[in-house]
Amino acid sequence: MKKIQGLLLASAVFTLSAATVASTTLAAAAEEPGPGNRPFAHSGRMRGGFGGGAPLITMALNHKSELNLTSDQVSNLEKIRTNYQSQVTPLHQQLRTIEKDIAGLIQQTPADLIQVKSKLQEGEKFRSELRYLRIEALENGKSVLTQQQRDQLKTLVRSQFQQFRNRQGQQPS
Fold first, then answer.
1. Is 39 part of any domain?
2. Can you give the CATH number for the domain in which 127 is found?
3. Which of 92, 100, 137, 164 lies 20 to 30 A from 122 at CA?
4. Cα separation of 49 and 126, whole Å?
5. Number of Cβ within a 10 Å radius of residue 157
6. pLDDT per position as a tens digit, 3-17
């Protein structure tokens, strides 16, 4: 009976560890600028406005004529975006390394749960820093725009989000 309980406990720990790794890997992927992804795009969390994680700086640059951005504003937004990208790239690399380490640790039998927990906590520090850097870049980007430009950008974001939602609702049956 004790062997069965031990086996059940080990299975539960392994399942929980695998689920944790899967969810942290997905969270890291949502944060990473991969091929074809823009660094300010954050999957399904785009809610419009400045708090939703939309690719706002890139979107503002793509719509510079509609927003009537000055050359100084364009230059400042490009600097903010470049600075953000240079700061997050090494953090993403470190986070990928940590995720690989976690995957290796849970493949061991038995898994060293103390090391797994330590790596998970280390990964969360990087995720927290990435989140802060994103917020900082967005705030810096907002400070470059006038209130009217921010309002116009919010309208553009809502419009594009609505178009996205409409396309998702019209998937073939």
1. no
2. 1.20.120
3. 137
4. 25
5. 21
6. 555 444 444 444 444
